[in-house]
Amino acid sequence: MHLTYRDKMNNAVVLYDFYKKLQRIISKPRKIEAFWPSEASADYYERETETIRTIGKCQRAIFYSQHNVIPTTANGYLSIKRMKLGDLVEANEIHYGHLMSTKILSQIPLQIKYDNIVINGKIDEIVFDNLRSLYDLIEHKSGYGWNFEKDIIAGGTYKPEHAMQIGLYIYGGKFQNLLAPFGIEANQIGTSVILYTSRGNCENADDVIVDVEQVGITHQIKVYARRKIKKGKDNPIEIKDTVDHLINIENIFTKCKHIYDCSVKGVLPENDFAAEWNKTYLNSMLKRKKISDADKLNISSEKKIPWQCSYCQYHEMCIKNEYPKTLEEYQKEATVRMEDIKISYKDQYGIDLQDIDNVLPESKDAVSTTE
Ligand code: SF4
User: Fold this and answer.
1) Are residues 29 and 104 in the same domain?
2) Is the separation of the CB atoms in 59 and 259 below 8 Å?
3) What pairs with residue 224 in β-bridges?
4) Are 245 and 288 part of one and the same domain?
5) Residue 52 lies in a domain
C-alpha cells in the first residue's frame, strides 16, 4: 500500500510505503539496546541563559522508533527532499576532501559500548595531517537559511547536538580504541572538527573544534569555538574564543539506558518536549478528534510548540500517552493509519494523497522519498 502524488513532471512520488515498512519490521526488528548517534540526548548547560535543557532526540520518540511504531503523520515532501539534498552536499564535501588529501578515510563504522548499551555510528571523514602525524576527525553538517549563514557560517557558533555526535566518536576512538582496526591508535587522534557547509552559498565554516577529556570518573565533551561578533563600522568583527564544557558522555548513556529499562519494564519514557505544546496546536488536534478534552487538559501551555514535536511523526500517540501496539494490531489497523496520514498531509501541506496500488502495481516508475 503506497501513498503518493504526482509532481509537476507528472512523476508518481511515493511518500509512504506502509507494507515496505512492515516487511522491514518483520525481517529486521530493532534491538532495544542499540541506538544511533543521532538518537543521543543529554542534559546541556547553556552558558548564555545559565539553564540546563535537554538536547538531542526526545526519549519517547526514540522509544516509539525502537518499537517500530507506524507513524501517524507523514514527513513533508519538501523536508524529505531537503534532508536528501543535505546528504548530497555532505557527500560532495567528502569528495572534495578526497581530491585534496593524500590520506583520507570516510564513513568509518564504530560501535561505542557502555554496559549493555551500544551506539552504532559512522565517522564522516578522517584526514591524516602529515606535519603533525595525527589523524583529524571531521563531522560534516549542512544547513540553509539566513540564520544558519549568519550564526554558524559567519558567526562561528554551532549546535550542541552536533558536538554531542562527534564527541561520541572521539570518546570511542580515544577511550575505547575503536579505530585501531583502521590503523589509528588512540594516541594518534588529533583535532576533531565540525565542518559546516551552507546549502545556499556553499561557504564552509570550520571554527568549531571538539575534544573529550576525562574529568574524574566521567568524560566531558569540550568545545572550542571562535565566535565572530559584529561590532560596527570601525571594528567590524570581534573574535571571541570560548571553551564550553558541555555534555557528559556518561549522561548520554544513562539516558539510553533509561529508554532500554522502560522497554524491559513495559512503560513509556518521558515525553521530553511535550510540556511546551501550545494551545493552538492542542485545539487543532481536538478539532480533528485526535485527542479528547481530558487529553488536552493534561498537557496545556501557552508556549510555542518545540520544533522537535512539530517534526515528530508520533505526536498523535504521544499526546494520548499511547503505548506501542503489537505488529498484528498494526496490520489490522493499516487502513485507518493510511487514512490518518492522508488527513494529516492534507491539513499540513494541502496536498491530496492517493492510494496508488491500482495505478502502479509494482511502483516501478515511482520515485520513492521514504523507506
Ligand atoms: S511529540 Fe514531542 S514529546 Fe512527543 S514523542 Fe514526539 S518529540 Fe517527544
Assistant:
1) no
2) yes
3) 209, 243
4) no
5) no
Question: Among 253, 286, 309, where does a domain finish?
Answer: 253
**CA 2 to each of CA 5, 10, 140, 322, 336: distance values in angstroms, whole numbers, following the listed order:** 10, 17, 33, 25, 14
Choose among 321, 326, 325, 304: nearest CA to 270: 321
Do residues 121 and 170 lie in contact, with contact meaning Cβ atoms separated by under 8 Å? no
Question: Which of 316, 319, 317 minimizes the C-alpha distance to 297?
Answer: 319
Total structural domains in the chain?
2
Distance 358 CA to ligand 1 centre (A): 35
**Which atom of ligand 1 is nearest the CA belonging to 308?**
7
The predicted-structure confidence for 75-120, as pLDDT tens digits, reads as follows 655 666 777 788 888 888 887 777 766 668 888 999 999 999 999 9
Give the position of cell 487543532.
Answer: 284
**Quick check: CB of 309 below 6 Å from ligand 1?**
yes
Spatial separation of the C-alpha atoms in residues 189 and 110, rounded to whole Å: 15
Q: Nearest-5° angle of CA 111, CA 116, CA 120?
A: 20
* Cβ-Cβ contacts under 8 Å for 89 (sequence gap 6 or more): 142, 197, 199
202 and 120 both lie in a single domain: yes
Residues 132 and 70 in one domain: no
Q: What is the mean pLDDT of residues 226-245?
A: 75
Say what the pTM is.
0.78
Q: Is residue 27 part of a domain?
A: yes
Task: Report which protein residue has its CA nearest ligand 1's atom 2.
Answer: 309
Q: Which domain holds residue 217?
A: 81-253
Residues 310 and 179 in one domain: no
